[in-house]
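Bumping my old thread because nobody answered last time. Still need a sequence for this structure:
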Protein backbone atom coordinates (compact mmCIF):
# COMPACT_ATOMS: atom_id res chain seq x y z
CA UNK A 1 0.00 0.00 0.00
CA UNK A 2 1.19 3.52 -0.84
CA UNK A 3 2.26 5.26 2.39
CA UNK A 4 0.79 8.52 1.14
CA UNK A 5 -2.51 7.16 -0.06
CA UNK A 6 -4.18 6.06 3.15
CA UNK A 7 -3.33 5.56 6.81
CA UNK A 8 -3.01 1.88 7.76
CA UNK A 9 -3.55 1.20 11.48
CA UNK A 10 -2.16 -2.33 11.17
CA UNK A 11 1.11 -0.94 9.85
CA UNK A 12 1.34 1.40 12.86
CA UNK A 13 0.78 -1.56 15.21
CA UNK A 14 3.45 -3.59 13.39
CA UNK A 15 6.01 -0.85 14.09
CA UNK A 16 5.77 -1.49 17.84
CA UNK A 17 5.93 -5.29 17.91
CA UNK A 18 8.38 -6.44 20.59
CA UNK A 19 11.40 -7.43 18.43
CA UNK A 20 11.34 -4.10 16.53
CA UNK A 21 10.52 -2.15 19.67
CA UNK A 22 13.55 -3.27 21.67
CA UNK A 23 16.02 -2.13 19.01
CA UNK A 24 14.21 1.13 18.30
CA UNK A 25 16.09 4.24 19.44
CA UNK A 26 12.85 6.21 19.24
CA UNK A 27 11.13 3.81 21.66
CA UNK A 28 13.79 4.24 24.33
CA UNK A 29 13.70 8.01 23.94
CA UNK A 30 9.90 7.88 24.20
CA UNK A 31 10.06 5.64 27.29
CA UNK A 32 12.60 7.93 28.99
CA UNK A 33 10.39 11.01 28.54
CA UNK A 34 7.28 9.08 29.63
CA UNK A 35 8.89 7.66 32.80
CA UNK A 36 10.15 11.12 33.74
CA UNK A 37 6.59 12.41 33.32
CA UNK A 38 5.18 9.63 35.53
CA UNK A 39 7.76 10.32 38.27
CA UNK A 40 7.14 14.08 38.27
CA UNK A 41 3.39 13.48 38.25
CA UNK A 42 3.71 11.25 41.30
CA UNK A 43 5.72 13.90 43.18
CA UNK A 44 3.28 16.60 42.18
CA UNK A 45 0.23 14.58 43.27
CA UNK A 46 1.85 14.07 46.69
CA UNK A 47 2.29 17.84 46.91
CA UNK A 48 -1.37 18.34 45.94
CA UNK A 49 -2.36 15.99 48.76
CA UNK A 50 -0.43 18.11 51.27
CA UNK A 51 -1.96 21.38 50.00
CA UNK A 52 -5.50 21.28 51.33
CA UNK A 53 -6.27 24.85 50.18
CA UNK A 54 -5.76 24.18 46.46
CA UNK A 55 -9.03 24.13 44.54
CA UNK A 56 -9.91 21.55 41.89
CA UNK A 57 -9.42 24.03 39.02
CA UNK A 58 -5.86 24.92 40.13
CA UNK A 59 -4.95 21.23 40.28
CA UNK A 60 -6.45 20.59 36.84
CA UNK A 61 -4.55 23.54 35.34
CA UNK A 62 -1.26 22.30 36.79
CA UNK A 63 -1.88 18.79 35.45
CA UNK A 64 -2.75 20.25 32.05
CA UNK A 65 0.55 22.17 31.91
CA UNK A 66 2.39 18.97 32.84
CA UNK A 67 0.75 17.10 29.94
CA UNK A 68 1.58 20.00 27.61
CA UNK A 69 5.28 19.71 28.50
CA UNK A 70 5.08 15.94 27.98
CA UNK A 71 3.77 16.34 24.42
CA UNK A 72 6.47 18.92 23.63
CA UNK A 73 9.11 16.54 25.02
CA UNK A 74 7.81 13.64 22.92
CA UNK A 75 8.36 15.60 19.72
CA UNK A 76 6.59 16.85 16.57
CA UNK A 77 4.04 14.05 16.08
CA UNK A 78 2.80 14.45 19.63
CA UNK A 79 2.63 18.22 19.25
CA UNK A 80 0.32 17.57 16.28
CA UNK A 81 -1.62 15.15 18.50
CA UNK A 82 -2.04 17.91 21.10
CA UNK A 83 -3.32 20.31 18.45
CA UNK A 84 -5.69 17.62 17.18
CA UNK A 85 -7.02 16.94 20.70
CA UNK A 86 -7.47 20.66 21.40
CA UNK A 87 -10.77 20.42 19.51
CA UNK A 88 -12.08 17.59 21.70
CA UNK A 89 -13.58 19.42 24.66
CA UNK A 90 -16.15 16.62 24.86
CA UNK A 91 -13.58 14.09 26.11
CA UNK A 92 -10.93 16.27 27.77
CA UNK A 93 -11.07 18.69 30.72
CA UNK A 94 -11.47 22.37 29.81
CA UNK A 95 -8.13 23.26 31.42
CA UNK A 96 -6.30 20.72 29.25
CA UNK A 97 -8.06 21.85 26.07
CA UNK A 98 -7.02 25.46 26.81
CA UNK A 99 -3.38 24.44 27.28
CA UNK A 100 -3.33 22.29 24.14
CA UNK A 101 -4.71 25.18 22.09
CA UNK A 102 -1.49 27.10 22.87
CA UNK A 103 0.76 24.45 21.26
CA UNK A 104 2.92 25.90 18.50
CA UNK A 105 4.05 23.60 15.70
CA UNK A 106 7.57 25.02 15.43
CA UNK A 107 10.53 22.64 15.17
CA UNK A 108 14.13 23.14 13.96
CA UNK A 109 14.57 22.90 10.16
CA UNK A 110 16.34 19.95 8.56
CA UNK A 111 19.53 20.48 6.57
CA UNK A 112 19.65 22.04 3.12
CA UNK A 113 21.44 18.92 1.87
CA UNK A 114 18.25 16.95 2.61
CA UNK A 115 16.21 19.62 0.81
CA UNK A 116 18.40 19.17 -2.29
CA UNK A 117 18.15 15.39 -2.02
CA UNK A 118 14.33 15.46 -1.80
CA UNK A 119 14.02 17.75 -4.82
CA UNK A 120 16.41 15.58 -6.85
CA UNK A 121 14.47 12.41 -5.92
CA UNK A 122 11.02 13.88 -6.56
CA UNK A 123 11.68 16.00 -9.68
CA UNK A 124 14.69 14.15 -11.12
CA UNK A 125 16.62 17.40 -11.46
CA UNK A 126 19.04 19.46 -9.42
CA UNK A 127 17.88 22.68 -7.78
CA UNK A 128 19.99 24.73 -10.19
CA UNK A 129 18.14 23.19 -13.15
CA UNK A 130 14.78 24.29 -11.77
CA UNK A 131 15.35 27.59 -9.96
CA UNK A 132 17.37 30.76 -10.56
CA UNK A 133 17.49 31.41 -6.81
CA UNK A 134 16.68 29.15 -3.86
CA UNK A 135 17.08 30.48 -0.31
CA UNK A 136 18.93 27.93 1.78
CA UNK A 137 17.39 29.26 5.01
CA UNK A 138 13.83 28.11 5.62
CA UNK A 139 11.30 30.91 6.28
CA UNK A 140 9.13 28.48 8.29
CA UNK A 141 9.66 25.04 9.77
CA UNK A 142 7.07 22.70 11.27
CA UNK A 143 6.68 19.05 12.19
CA UNK A 144 5.65 17.88 8.71
CA UNK A 145 7.82 20.08 6.52
CA UNK A 146 9.48 23.42 5.92
CA UNK A 147 9.16 26.33 3.50
CA UNK A 148 11.79 28.11 1.38
CA UNK A 149 11.60 31.13 -0.89
CA UNK A 150 12.76 30.60 -4.47
CA UNK A 151 12.58 31.97 -8.02
CA UNK A 152 11.70 29.88 -11.07
CA UNK A 153 13.65 29.98 -14.34
CA UNK A 154 11.00 32.35 -15.77
CA UNK A 155 11.66 34.79 -12.93
CA UNK A 156 8.46 34.09 -10.96
CA UNK A 157 8.82 34.32 -7.18
CA UNK A 158 7.53 31.20 -5.43
CA UNK A 159 7.61 29.38 -2.12
CA UNK A 160 8.61 25.73 -1.96
CA UNK A 161 7.22 23.46 0.74
CA UNK A 162 9.41 20.40 1.33
CA UNK A 163 8.28 17.40 3.35
CA UNK A 164 10.52 16.06 6.12
CA UNK A 165 12.57 13.02 5.02
CA UNK A 166 11.26 9.57 6.04
CA UNK A 167 8.16 11.24 7.46
CA UNK A 168 5.60 8.48 6.82
CA UNK A 169 7.70 5.89 8.66
CA UNK A 170 8.22 8.23 11.63
CA UNK A 171 4.49 8.95 11.82
CA UNK A 172 3.65 5.25 11.72
CA UNK A 173 6.13 4.56 14.53
CA UNK A 174 4.83 7.38 16.76
CA UNK A 175 1.17 6.54 16.17
CA UNK A 176 2.05 2.91 16.92
CA UNK A 177 3.49 4.05 20.27
CA UNK A 178 0.29 6.00 21.00
CA UNK A 179 -1.80 2.91 20.31
CA UNK A 180 0.52 0.81 22.46
CA UNK A 181 -0.03 3.18 25.41
CA UNK A 182 -3.81 3.01 24.88
CA UNK A 183 -3.69 -0.80 24.87
CA UNK A 184 -1.45 -0.88 27.96
CA UNK A 185 -3.84 1.45 29.77
CA UNK A 186 -6.71 -0.91 28.95
CA UNK A 187 -4.95 -3.94 30.46
CA UNK A 188 -3.84 -2.03 33.55
CA UNK A 189 -7.42 -0.91 34.14
CA UNK A 190 -8.71 -4.45 33.65
CA UNK A 191 -6.21 -5.65 36.24
CA UNK A 192 -7.10 -2.90 38.72
CA UNK A 193 -10.84 -3.46 38.22
CA UNK A 194 -10.75 -7.26 37.92
CA UNK A 195 -13.44 -7.49 40.60
CA UNK A 196 -15.59 -4.75 39.07
CA UNK A 197 -19.15 -5.36 37.97
CA UNK A 198 -20.10 -6.04 34.37
CA UNK A 199 -21.12 -2.42 33.69
CA UNK A 200 -17.71 -1.09 34.77
CA UNK A 201 -15.93 -3.64 32.59
CA UNK A 202 -18.03 -2.59 29.61
CA UNK A 203 -17.13 1.06 30.33
CA UNK A 204 -13.42 0.17 30.29
CA UNK A 205 -13.83 -1.60 26.95
CA UNK A 206 -15.83 1.30 25.45
CA UNK A 207 -13.24 3.79 26.68
CA UNK A 208 -10.49 1.75 24.99
CA UNK A 209 -12.44 1.56 21.71
CA UNK A 210 -13.07 5.33 21.74
CA UNK A 211 -9.37 6.13 22.09
CA UNK A 212 -8.35 3.56 19.47
CA UNK A 213 -10.87 5.12 17.06
CA UNK A 214 -9.47 8.55 17.91
CA UNK A 215 -5.93 7.35 17.10
CA UNK A 216 -7.14 6.13 13.71
CA UNK A 217 -8.89 9.44 13.04
CA UNK A 218 -5.65 11.25 13.95
CA UNK A 219 -3.65 8.98 11.63
CA UNK A 220 -6.02 9.57 8.72
CA UNK A 221 -5.85 13.33 9.31
CA UNK A 222 -2.03 13.36 9.34
CA UNK A 223 -1.70 11.25 6.22
CA UNK A 224 -4.03 13.59 4.35
CA UNK A 225 -1.85 16.51 5.44
CA UNK A 226 1.36 14.94 4.13
CA UNK A 227 -0.07 14.41 0.65
CA UNK A 228 0.88 17.72 -0.99
CA UNK A 229 -1.01 16.83 -4.18
CA UNK A 230 -4.18 16.76 -2.10
CA UNK A 231 -3.27 20.08 -0.49
CA UNK A 232 -2.83 21.63 -3.94
CA UNK A 233 -6.22 20.30 -5.03
CA UNK A 234 -7.77 21.75 -1.86
CA UNK A 235 -6.30 25.17 -2.67
CA UNK A 236 -7.71 25.09 -6.20
CA UNK A 237 -11.11 24.00 -4.94
CA UNK A 238 -11.16 26.76 -2.31
CA UNK A 239 -10.29 29.36 -4.94
CA UNK A 240 -13.33 28.17 -6.91
CA UNK A 241 -15.52 28.35 -3.77
CA UNK A 242 -14.42 31.94 -3.12
CA UNK A 243 -14.34 33.12 -6.75
CA UNK A 244 -16.98 35.78 -5.98
CA UNK A 245 -14.61 37.32 -3.40
CA UNK A 246 -11.93 39.37 -5.23
CA UNK A 247 -10.69 40.56 -1.84
CA UNK A 248 -9.73 37.00 -0.79
CA UNK A 249 -6.50 35.59 -2.26
CA UNK A 250 -5.47 31.94 -2.55
CA UNK A 251 -1.88 31.43 -3.81
CA UNK A 252 -1.84 29.51 -7.09
CA UNK A 253 -0.19 26.09 -7.24
CA UNK A 254 2.64 25.57 -9.75
CA UNK A 255 1.59 22.04 -10.70
CA UNK A 256 4.57 21.41 -12.96
CA UNK A 257 6.84 21.22 -9.90
CA UNK A 258 4.40 19.80 -7.34
CA UNK A 259 4.50 16.19 -6.09
CA UNK A 260 3.31 14.37 -2.99
CA UNK A 261 6.39 15.58 -1.09
CA UNK A 262 6.96 18.98 -2.73
CA UNK A 263 4.48 21.83 -3.09
CA UNK A 264 5.43 24.87 -5.19
CA UNK A 265 3.11 27.88 -5.17
CA UNK A 266 3.22 31.54 -6.10
CA UNK A 267 4.68 33.86 -3.49
CA UNK A 268 2.00 36.17 -2.08
CA UNK A 269 3.37 38.27 0.75
CA UNK A 270 1.50 40.29 3.34
CA UNK A 271 1.21 41.46 6.93
CA UNK A 272 0.11 38.82 9.44
CA UNK A 273 -3.54 39.36 10.30
CA UNK A 274 -2.87 39.69 14.05
CA UNK A 275 -0.30 42.48 13.60
CA UNK A 276 -2.92 45.12 14.37
CA UNK A 277 -0.59 48.08 14.91
CA UNK A 278 1.26 47.47 11.65
CA UNK A 279 -2.01 47.09 9.75
CA UNK A 280 -3.34 50.36 11.18
CA UNK A 281 -0.08 52.16 10.40
CA UNK A 282 -0.51 51.06 6.78
CA UNK A 283 -3.98 52.64 6.79
CA UNK A 284 -6.10 49.48 6.94
CA UNK A 285 -9.43 49.44 8.79
CA UNK A 286 -9.08 46.42 11.09
CA UNK A 287 -12.81 46.50 11.87
CA UNK A 288 -13.64 45.89 8.20
CA UNK A 289 -10.96 43.18 8.00
CA UNK A 290 -12.62 41.35 10.92
CA UNK A 291 -16.05 41.55 9.28
CA UNK A 292 -14.69 40.43 5.91
CA UNK A 293 -12.82 37.51 7.49
CA UNK A 294 -15.82 36.17 9.43
CA UNK A 295 -18.16 36.68 6.49
CA UNK A 296 -15.82 34.76 4.20
CA UNK A 297 -15.61 31.78 6.57
CA UNK A 298 -19.30 31.76 7.43
CA UNK A 299 -20.00 31.44 3.73
CA UNK A 300 -17.66 28.44 3.61
CA UNK A 301 -19.40 26.86 6.61
CA UNK A 302 -23.03 27.48 5.70
CA UNK A 303 -23.31 27.87 1.92
CA UNK A 304 -20.60 25.61 0.44
CA UNK A 305 -19.79 23.22 3.31
CA UNK A 306 -16.12 23.02 2.26
CA UNK A 307 -13.87 25.09 4.51
CA UNK A 308 -10.32 25.94 5.49
CA UNK A 309 -9.97 24.33 8.93
CA UNK A 310 -6.74 25.92 10.16
CA UNK A 311 -7.25 29.72 10.17
CA UNK A 312 -4.67 30.63 12.81
CA UNK A 313 -2.76 33.95 12.44
CA UNK A 314 0.20 32.24 10.74
CA UNK A 315 -2.09 31.16 7.90
CA UNK A 316 -3.78 34.53 7.32
CA UNK A 317 -2.30 37.79 6.06
CA UNK A 318 -3.29 41.10 4.46
CA UNK A 319 -1.73 42.14 1.16
CA UNK A 320 -0.85 45.71 0.11
CA UNK A 321 -4.36 46.28 -1.26
CA UNK A 322 -6.18 45.03 1.83
CA UNK A 323 -7.12 41.59 0.49
CA UNK A 324 -7.06 38.65 2.91
CA UNK A 325 -4.53 35.96 1.94
CA UNK A 326 -5.22 32.38 3.07
CA UNK A 327 -2.30 29.96 3.28
CA UNK A 328 -1.89 26.20 3.95
CA UNK A 329 -4.69 23.92 2.76
CA UNK A 330 -3.50 20.68 4.34
CA UNK A 331 -6.29 20.75 6.93
CA UNK A 332 -9.76 21.08 5.42
CA UNK A 333 -13.26 20.29 6.64
CA UNK A 334 -16.54 19.37 4.98
CA UNK A 335 -20.11 19.63 6.27
CA UNK A 336 -22.95 17.81 4.55
CA UNK A 337 -26.14 19.55 3.47
CA UNK A 338 -28.17 18.31 6.44
CA UNK A 339 -25.61 19.62 8.94
CA UNK A 340 -25.44 22.94 7.07
CA UNK A 341 -29.21 23.24 7.40
CA UNK A 342 -28.97 22.87 11.19
CA UNK A 343 -25.97 25.20 11.32
CA UNK A 344 -27.96 27.82 9.44
CA UNK A 345 -30.81 27.33 11.90
CA UNK A 346 -28.35 27.93 14.75
CA UNK A 347 -27.03 31.14 13.20
CA UNK A 348 -30.43 32.66 12.43
CA UNK A 349 -31.65 31.73 15.94
CA UNK A 350 -28.64 33.56 17.38
CA UNK A 351 -29.47 36.63 15.30
CA UNK A 352 -33.05 36.41 16.61
CA UNK A 353 -31.81 36.02 20.20
CA UNK A 354 -33.97 32.89 20.44
CA UNK A 355 -32.32 30.73 23.13
CA UNK A 356 -34.80 27.79 22.95
CA UNK A 357 -34.27 27.48 19.18
CA UNK A 358 -30.49 27.75 19.62
CA UNK A 359 -30.74 24.82 22.01
CA UNK A 360 -32.89 22.88 19.52
CA UNK A 361 -30.29 23.49 16.78
CA UNK A 362 -27.51 22.23 19.07
CA UNK A 363 -29.52 19.06 19.65
CA UNK A 364 -29.97 18.61 15.88
CA UNK A 365 -26.22 19.12 15.39
CA UNK A 366 -25.72 16.38 18.03
CA UNK A 367 -23.63 18.72 20.20
CA UNK A 368 -26.26 18.44 22.93
CA UNK A 369 -27.82 15.06 23.75
CA UNK A 370 -31.50 14.77 22.86
CA UNK A 371 -32.33 13.71 26.44
CA UNK A 372 -30.29 16.53 28.02
CA UNK A 373 -31.64 18.98 30.58
CA UNK A 374 -32.47 21.78 28.13
CA UNK A 375 -33.19 24.27 30.91
CA UNK A 376 -29.60 23.96 32.13
CA UNK A 377 -28.28 24.26 28.55
CA UNK A 378 -30.37 27.40 27.97
CA UNK A 379 -28.96 29.02 31.12
CA UNK A 380 -25.43 28.44 29.79
CA UNK A 381 -26.24 29.80 26.33
CA UNK A 382 -28.14 32.96 27.29
CA UNK A 383 -25.19 35.08 28.57
CA UNK A 384 -23.16 34.39 25.43
CA UNK A 385 -25.76 36.00 23.18
CA UNK A 386 -24.67 39.39 24.56
CA UNK A 387 -21.05 38.41 24.04
CA UNK A 388 -21.65 37.58 20.38
CA UNK A 389 -23.44 40.91 20.01
CA UNK A 390 -20.16 42.58 20.96
CA UNK A 391 -20.15 42.72 24.77
CA UNK A 392 -16.77 42.48 26.48
CA UNK A 393 -16.07 38.92 27.62
CA UNK A 394 -14.97 40.22 31.04
CA UNK A 395 -18.50 41.51 31.72
CA UNK A 396 -19.99 38.02 31.64
CA UNK A 397 -20.79 36.36 34.98
CA UNK A 398 -18.39 33.45 34.69
CA UNK A 399 -19.03 32.21 38.23
CA UNK A 400 -22.62 31.37 37.35
CA UNK A 401 -21.72 30.12 33.85
CA UNK A 402 -19.10 27.80 35.35
CA UNK A 403 -21.61 26.38 37.85
CA UNK A 404 -24.15 25.74 35.07
CA UNK A 405 -21.48 24.25 32.80
CA UNK A 406 -20.19 21.93 35.54
CA UNK A 407 -23.75 20.77 36.10
CA UNK A 408 -24.28 20.12 32.38
CA UNK A 409 -20.98 18.25 32.06
CA UNK A 410 -21.75 16.14 35.12
CA UNK A 411 -25.01 15.13 33.42
CA UNK A 412 -23.11 14.27 30.20
CA UNK A 413 -25.25 16.71 28.24
CA UNK A 414 -22.51 17.67 25.76
CA UNK A 415 -20.54 15.80 23.15
CA UNK A 416 -18.56 16.80 20.07
CA UNK A 417 -19.34 14.85 16.89
CA UNK A 418 -16.19 14.00 14.94
CA UNK A 419 -17.49 15.71 11.79
CA UNK A 420 -17.81 19.03 13.67
CA UNK A 421 -14.41 18.98 15.40
CA UNK A 422 -12.71 20.96 12.60
CA UNK A 423 -15.60 23.41 12.47
CA UNK A 424 -15.24 24.12 16.20
CA UNK A 425 -11.48 24.50 15.83
CA UNK A 426 -11.84 26.92 12.92
CA UNK A 427 -14.58 28.89 14.65
CA UNK A 428 -12.52 29.28 17.82
CA UNK A 429 -9.50 30.53 15.87
CA UNK A 430 -11.60 33.00 13.88
CA UNK A 431 -13.43 34.38 16.89
CA UNK A 432 -10.08 35.01 18.63
CA UNK A 433 -8.65 36.83 15.59
CA UNK A 434 -11.82 38.92 15.16
CA UNK A 435 -11.60 40.06 18.79
CA UNK A 436 -7.95 41.05 18.28
CA UNK A 437 -8.87 43.12 15.23
CA UNK A 438 -12.00 44.61 16.81
CA UNK A 439 -12.44 44.34 20.58
CA UNK A 440 -16.22 44.85 20.50
CA UNK A 441 -16.65 42.62 17.46
CA UNK A 442 -20.29 41.59 16.97
CA UNK A 443 -20.74 38.14 15.47
CA UNK A 444 -24.48 38.85 15.19
CA UNK A 445 -24.10 42.03 13.10
CA UNK A 446 -21.43 40.42 10.94
CA UNK A 447 -23.75 37.50 10.21
CA UNK A 448 -26.63 39.56 8.82
CA UNK A 449 -25.12 40.24 5.35
CA UNK A 450 -24.48 36.51 4.94
CA UNK A 451 -28.09 35.67 5.75
CA UNK A 452 -29.16 38.26 3.19
CA UNK A 453 -26.86 36.65 0.63
CA UNK A 454 -28.29 33.23 1.50
CA UNK A 455 -31.81 34.58 0.94
CA UNK A 456 -30.83 36.04 -2.44
CA UNK A 457 -29.07 32.88 -3.55
CA UNK A 458 -31.46 30.20 -2.32
CA UNK A 459 -34.76 32.09 -2.41
CA UNK A 460 -37.73 31.65 -0.12
CA UNK A 461 -37.92 27.87 -0.73
CA UNK A 462 -34.70 27.30 1.20
CA UNK A 463 -36.16 28.99 4.27
CA UNK A 464 -39.22 26.77 4.00
CA UNK A 465 -36.99 23.69 3.77
CA UNK A 466 -34.94 24.70 6.79
CA UNK A 467 -38.00 25.62 8.83
CA UNK A 468 -36.75 29.20 9.18
CA UNK A 469 -39.49 31.04 7.27
CA UNK A 470 -41.19 32.29 10.44
CA UNK A 471 -37.85 33.46 11.85
CA UNK A 472 -37.09 35.31 8.64
CA UNK A 473 -40.49 37.05 8.75
CA UNK A 474 -39.84 37.90 12.39
CA UNK A 475 -36.58 39.61 11.43
CA UNK A 476 -38.35 41.43 8.62
CA UNK A 477 -41.06 42.74 10.96
CA UNK A 478 -38.39 44.07 13.33
CA UNK A 479 -36.85 46.01 10.47
CA UNK A 480 -40.22 47.33 9.28
CA UNK A 481 -40.69 48.84 12.74
CA UNK A 482 -37.55 50.91 12.31
CA UNK A 483 -37.47 51.55 8.55
CA UNK A 484 -39.70 52.63 5.69
CA UNK A 485 -42.09 50.10 4.22
CA UNK A 486 -40.28 47.49 2.14
CA UNK A 487 -41.72 46.31 -1.21
CA UNK A 488 -43.29 42.84 -1.11
CA UNK A 489 -41.12 41.57 -3.96
CA UNK A 490 -37.99 42.58 -2.08
CA UNK A 491 -39.22 40.79 1.01
CA UNK A 492 -39.48 37.57 -0.97
CA UNK A 493 -36.12 37.99 -2.66
CA UNK A 494 -34.45 39.09 0.53
CA UNK A 495 -32.78 42.13 -1.02
CA UNK A 496 -33.55 44.32 1.99
CA UNK A 497 -33.30 41.62 4.61
CA UNK A 498 -30.81 41.70 7.41
CA UNK A 499 -29.03 44.83 6.27
CA UNK A 500 -25.84 45.49 8.21
CA UNK A 501 -26.42 48.82 9.98
CA UNK A 502 -22.77 49.28 10.82
CA UNK A 503 -21.33 49.14 7.33
CA UNK A 504 -22.32 49.54 3.68
CA UNK A 505 -20.00 46.69 2.71
CA UNK A 506 -21.46 43.30 1.92
CA UNK A 507 -19.72 40.02 2.47
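Sorry it took so long. Here it is:
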Amino acid sequence: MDDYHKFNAQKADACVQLPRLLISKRFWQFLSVLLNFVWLSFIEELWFFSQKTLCKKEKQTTRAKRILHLLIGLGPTFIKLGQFLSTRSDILPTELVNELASLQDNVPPFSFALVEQTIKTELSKNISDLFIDFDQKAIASASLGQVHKARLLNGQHVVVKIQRPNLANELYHDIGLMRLIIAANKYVNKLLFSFANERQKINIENHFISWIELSEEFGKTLFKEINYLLEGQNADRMRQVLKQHPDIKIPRIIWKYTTRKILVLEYVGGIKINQVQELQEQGFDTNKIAEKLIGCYLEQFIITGFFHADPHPGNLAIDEYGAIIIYDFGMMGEINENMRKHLFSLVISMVNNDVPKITEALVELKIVHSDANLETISKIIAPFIDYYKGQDLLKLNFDQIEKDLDKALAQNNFRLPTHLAYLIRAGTCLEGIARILKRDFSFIECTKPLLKKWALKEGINQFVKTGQLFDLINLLVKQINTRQKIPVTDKILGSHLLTDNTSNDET
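The first strand starts at residue 131 and ends at 134. Let me know if any region looks off to you.
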